[in-house]
Amino acid sequence: MLNFMENIKTIPVGEWMTNFVDWLTDTFAFLFDPIKEGLGSFMSVITNGLVAIPPIIFILLVAILAFFMTGKKLGLAIFSIIGLLFIWNQDLWNQLIETFTLVLTASILCIIIGIPIGILMAKSKIAETIITPILDFMQTMPAFVYLIPAVAFFSIGVVPGIFASLIFATPPTVRFTNLGIRQVSDELVEAADAFGSTGPQKLFKVELPMAKYTIMAGVNQTVMLALSMVVIASMIGAPGLGREVLSALQRAQVGPGFVAGLCIFVLAIIIDRFTQNIYRNKSR
Amino acid sequence: MPIIKVENLSKVFGKNTKAALQLAEAGKAKEEILKETGSTVGVNRASFEVEEGEIFVIMGLSGSGKSTLVRLINRLIEPTTGNIYIDGENLAKMDKKELRRVRREKLSMVFQRFGLFPNRTILQNTEYGLEVQGISKQERTKKAKESLELVGLGSYLDQYPDQLSGGMQQRVGLARALANDPEVMLMDEAFSALDPLIRKDMQDELLDLQETMKKTILFITHDLDEALRIGDRIALMKDGHIVQIGTPEEILMNPANKFVEKFVEDVDRAKVLTAHQIMKRPETVNIDKHGPRVALERMREAGLSSIFVVDSKRMLQGILTADAANEARKNEVKNLSEIIQRDVPTVEKDTSLHDLFAVIHDSPVPLSVTENGKLLGIIVRGAVIGALAGEGEVNEHA
Question: Which regions span the lipid bilayer (chain A) (predicted)?
Fold first, then answer.
């Protein structure tokens, strides 16, 4: 009686999933290949462009930008100069740029995909009901699991890393966009309607501007999550600082691992403060 | 033709709308319907008409359905049944596109919490209604500026709403509603969020604006004083029903039922009643025809110590005391114009009781009530006190 499970066959969910991904890979190969090519060359253009800038000029530009974005305070500017000089000194400059490109590309794609989905959720109760559990799934499924189909679709390299980052990092943008639009006060929505706005007019003139700060908070989260995928993505061949951490891990080298980790930390702080200040300073 | 005509308009919140409507028609109370069907009747078969240029006030306590009713009229809330005619067009039967056209051209709305867009300047806020119509930047700026001038905010164009006081913000709300030159303005508790002094200023300003604009205004409020002050007619709502519709006087003097009566009880009668309503028919003599003898005779008959003097057109000339008349008779003076006091305490017919106090207090003679110099009636001190006490006869007229 207690062992009744022995009589029931294991449901072959894993097998189904394998078949499904195989089918996807075969069927949409015509789509995956151009995506891989296009995204790959787009990213190498950016990386090459950024690497071409002499590090010292790059560092100064970042510092000046930081100075003005934080409302002419010196803190972030000084941190950026010291932090980036340190990375340059450790001979990890190219890796830094590669990681930056990865995070930038993944974040832009997340925003392009996430904001419209968030708007859809805010506008449709049905969409919200369907999408919410999918977002939960995307966020709670261990990120390593995404790597497998990512490799199946795009083989190894930077593009599958982007794909895995997309799945992992898009949900906050979607959620915050939805939340931001739903939080717009009823009276403002009524005012927009009462004066005869069309749906898009209401969205672009009232709802999105009002939800801007909430959406930006979501974008900030997305960027941070994309950054946190750097090391994981390096397991399937994404270049950059993550690969340094990974190789240190594989060889049990504490020192180099720590240095690469520290560089990721510096990058994280700079990116985080930048994105936060975009939505804090430009109030209105 | 009335500009707004509402027929049997109902709104049921909840799933079981049909059953709820049937019960409502059977005359069941809101709570019973909620118990039986789980649905709330927000507005229950409301019907009324508003004439062009009228300020029609819908008044009721919170939960009476007044805010729902005003939102049914521009369909911010979809009606369950009923018809809404604006200028002869039935909004209830319109598709989205037509509805949008009517909202843009004929209706505008002023909100309780102002409903201003915090990310837009005052000018941009005022332009909003014109902007969504696709009117050119130049023209909409011109119109918006005109409308801001009208409410006295012409110099605040580039400020943001949070830089303005509540009263000023609501002026922007008003300017925005006026900018697209609507036929009907819906004002939802427009002044309720303002403190009492500012509220009174805004009421005055609305009345002033109305003198020149002649809009049709549907004004929602929970404040009876406000309703009485600005309303040409008032509809009282309770539990989704319209209980009574009438002019302020009609509502005060002839409450349709216990509910209205109770409502009206607390009104400060001093602010509502006017000289016109408590005055009495005056005893007069005609300055062109009569002399001191006739005057004395009339005073004796009526038991008065003074009498008002008018000319043939009933224009007030002055007052004659019994003493002066006696003196004149002894001295053989024939012409009344030599012996009357020309300085008579006078009030206009729509002066409120409240404002009468000061005048009547230091006056040894009754007050005269005039309209453009014509004597309409007189008020003695006793009448004021009687009216305040809520007893005594108050003149029945519109």
Answer: 42-67, 74-90, 102-122, 143-169, 223-242, 254-271
Out of A190, A198, A201, name the one closest to residue B115 (CB): A190
Closest alpha carbon within chain A to B116 = A188
Q: Mutate which of B76, B107, B127, B143 to test chain A, going by most A C-beta atoms within 10 A?
A: B76
B356 contact A CB<8A: no
Q: 């008959």: which residue's tokens?
A: B301
**B163 in contact with A, Cβ within 8 Å:** no
Q: Does residue B230 sit in the same domain as residue B306? A: no
Residues B147 and B198 in one domain: no
Out of B108, B113, B118, name the one closest to residue A195 (CB).
Answer: B108
**What pLDDT is recorded for position B312?**
85
- Check pLDDT > 90 for residue A70: no
- The highest-level CATH class for domain A94-281 is mainly alpha
Closest Cα of chain A to B25: distance in Å? Answer: 30
Which of A22-36, A167-181, B58-72: highest mean pLDDT?
A: A167-181
**Nearest by CB: A188 against B74, B100, B115:** B115
- Is the model's pLDDT at B110 over the cut of 50? yes
Q: Which residues contact A105 (CB under 8 A, 6 or more apart)?
A: A39, A42, A43, A46, A162
SS3 B257: coil
CA distance A55 to A151: 33
Domain-terminating residue out of B233, B267, B301: B267
Owning domain of residue B324: 275-388
Residue A25: left if φ>0, alpha if ψ -120 to 50, beta else—which one?
alpha
Domain count, chain B: 3
Whole-model pTM: value is 0.75
B318: CATH: 3.10.580.10
Q: Where are the domains of chain A?
A: 94-281
DSSP letter string over B16-73? -HHHHHHHHHTT--HHHHHHHHS-EEEEEEEEEEE-TT-EEEEEE-TTSSHHHHHHHH
> Are A195 and B119 in contact (CB < 8 Å)?
no
CB contact under 8 A, B103 and A196: yes
Domain membership flag for residue B40: yes
Contacts of B176 in chain A (CB under 8 A): 195
The complex's ipTM works out to 0.77
B153 with B235, same domain: the answer is: no
Residue B114 in any domain: the answer is no
- In this model, does residue A8 exceed pLDDT 70? yes
Mean pLDDT throughout B269-282?
A: 77
Of A243, A244, A227, residue with least CA distance to A235: A243
CB proximity list for B359: less than 8 A, separation 6 or greater: B345, B347, B367
- Provide the chain A residues 164-223 that lie in CB contact (below 8 A) with chain B: 185, 187-188, 190-198, 201, 205-206, 209-210, 212
Q: Which of A190, A201, A209 sits opposite B111 (nearest CB)?
A: A190
